[in-house]
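Handoff note, outgoing to incoming analyst
You'll be picking up this chain. Sequence as last confirmed:
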Amino acid sequence: CNGVQDATEAKQVARTIGDQKCSKSPLIVQRYIGASSTLDPLFKADKLMIRAASLVAPEQQEEYSSAVDVYIREQQMSSTMAYTSSWSGSENPNGSVEQIEENLLEAKKEVLETQAALRTIVRLLGLPPAPPFAE
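Most recent structure output, in case you need it:
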């Protein structure tokens, strides 16, 4: 919270007391990837992506199918790592702030892969890019 953050990292931070104390929240990561609620725009998006395969040109079917597979895998992994980080605190055996940070950094890598796959899917479907994520 006191250092310089990139835009993705800033989205993972939840201020707890003014500007002085904050903690990284796995719930923000899960909300970003559509895994925190059935009301999230990306909730079960993989099902829709699979059904939309017929809208992709035949010569791009393999690339589309691969992108959907990557999206599903990376979204699940980022959600899992975010969830794992919530149980990595010092209140648990072998837990620490460093362990939370490590798990959230791993989740960040997975989120970036999820984003890349989603961009490929949107491009292959011929859809306009989505506006930036806002809370």
